[in-house]
Amino acid sequence: xxxxxxxxxxxxxxxxxxxxxxxxxQAPSYLATVRADGWPRVHPxxxxxxxxxxxxxVMYPTSPKGQDLRRNAQFALHxxxxxxxxxxxxxxxxxxxxxxxxxxxxxxxxxxxxxxxEILATRYDELGLNPSRERWRADGSQTDRSR
Length: 147
What we know:
Elements: H1 6-12, H2 14-24, E1 29-34, E2 40-45, E3 56-59, H3 64-71, E4 74-79, E5 87-98, H4 102-106, E6 110-123, E7 132-137, E8 144-146
Antiparallel strand pairs: 1-2, 1-4, 3-6, 4-5, 5-6, 6-7, 7-8
């Protein structure tokens, strides 16, 4: 899977990036990783906000999600759907260890950049009906929209 940093995605699809950032800025989002036995594991995370051009998730060094990402970088991340948010967003890609911020270090956290392979956004009308979808892929088969 080809992946891209948040800033690359945002420069190619700024409106979609803004929508995704609004959804991910609400907590919790759910990060799915792959356990050592191959089964999925889901972790509540967030809120997530891009920083320095990357979408970063932080955790304690002993966190199972960090152990999973070190062993198998694949992840899926789904923003919570609550209230009248107007839609949802799903990201898939690969997690890569990155330098934690000074604040992260002071809190005892490590950090992973979530590199994006694909984003799928679903938007709903004001009644929560009529979904429309938009997809972006890092492999160049960029944004498409459908109802």
